[in-house]
Design brief:
38% of the residues lie in helices and 30% in strands. It contains 7 helices and 9 strands.
Length: 232
């Protein structure tokens, strides 16, 4: 009797788990209706970071009773203990981001030059190499999880300038995260004394704008400004 009760309990428990997926019911016509979900877990490594991606697929049955995919949701977690990536390893994604987010980059440039114009300062020119390295820096922050002016190798941000030949003038860096729009991140920089000082520094002539999807937040980005006073 105890074994029978135990078996029935397990069956009920299994049914409860199965029901939580919202399996469609049969209508009077004999066709299934409603929606249901299925979950898949994928695991891969990039730049030494172990990524665990839980993917939930939502399906429904159409008028013919055929299963149709109506939505996909991803939930990623990152194990960064072994992060490592060189400039050149980050470069392909950085270049892709520069192209994919060209409108956001131009909007950031427009907003910060608008701030400078309010104070009678000359506009900053968008530097090609500066923008490339700003996008590499954004990728570096996103994948390493180190949101700081110190890089993952514990050197200061200025090392990326020196390694790219920007060594004869002043340089500066603004970073931002958890913002989804150029207006949002630029307003945050404006309200920060040190970030605003970089934007308004009359010695700076060029700027690079970087943007990368934020690994830790589906709806925001990593933003980077690289300022330089010398020749581009």
């Amino acid at each position: 009797m105890k074994n029978l009760i135990r078996i029935l309990s397990l069956m009920l428990a299994a049914f409860a788990v199965f029901s939580s997926f919202g399996v469609g019911a049969y209508a009077a016509s004999g066709k299934q209706e409603g929606t249901f979900t299925q979950t898949e877990t994928k695991r891969y490594t990039k730049h030494g970071v172990v990524v665990r991606n839980n993917i939930t697929y939502t399906y429904k049955y159409n008028s013919k009773g055929k299963k149709v995919l109506v939505g996909t949701k991803e939930d990623k977690t990152y194990l960064r203990l072994a992060y490592h990536a060189t400039y050149n390893e980050l470069l392909p994604d950085a270049k892709a981001n520069r192209n994919n987010y060209a409108s956001q980059i131009n909007e950031v440039l427009k907003i910060i030059n608008g701030m400078r114009a309010e104070k009678g300062l000359k506009p900053l020119a968008l530097g090609d190499k500066l923008t490339e390295q700003a996008n590499v820096r954004a990728e570096e922050i996103a994948w390493s999880g180190k949101f700081s002016h110190y890089r993952p190798n514990y050197t200061y941000f200025s090392t990326i300038f020196r390694s790219n030949g920007f060594s004869s003038g002043k340089c500066g860096e603004n970073v931002g995260r958890r913002y989804s729009t150029p207006a949002g991140v630029c307003q945050a920089w404006k309200e920060s004394e040190t970030h605003y000082a970089n934007i308004m520094n009359p010695d700076f002539k060029y700027v690079g704008v970087g943007i990368s999807p934020n690994c830790d937040s589906e709806y925001s980005y990593i933003w980077v400004l690289h300022f330089y006073s010398g020749s581009k």
